[in-house]
Amino acid sequence: MVVILFLGDTAAFLLFALLGLKTHGFPLGVAAVAETAGPFWASWVVVALLTGGYRLPAATSWKGILGRYLLAGPLALLLRAWIEGKGTPLAFAAVALSISFLLLFVWRLLYGFWVQGRNRRQLSPS
What we know:
The mean pLDDT is 91. The relative contact order is 0.15. Helix content is 79%, strand content 0%. The radius of gyration is 16 Å and the shape is elongated. By secondary structure, the chain is mainly alpha-helical. The two termini are 25 Å apart.
């Protein structure tokens, strides 16, 4: 389960970076994607690991996802600003936090529904 959550989280942040780069007409190279997704992904993974975000049911609880992102999102912006050596424009912050959260939130909720369905099927008599 942890590996699936980790890979899904990684995919959500990679998709966030790809969408942003493509929308703004930037090249979709590996370095550009890593630079864009990296601070958001790293902040999320650290916060999730430290707060039980890779354990059920917290991993797929909407309150858990939101609470963790309220910590990880600003941390990601600070990390990005530190890496780039400059401040983060408010418009970028608002859009980046909204889109990355939405992708992560939808992924985690869908995974939670899948796990619940799988568990019900395993528990029901055949």
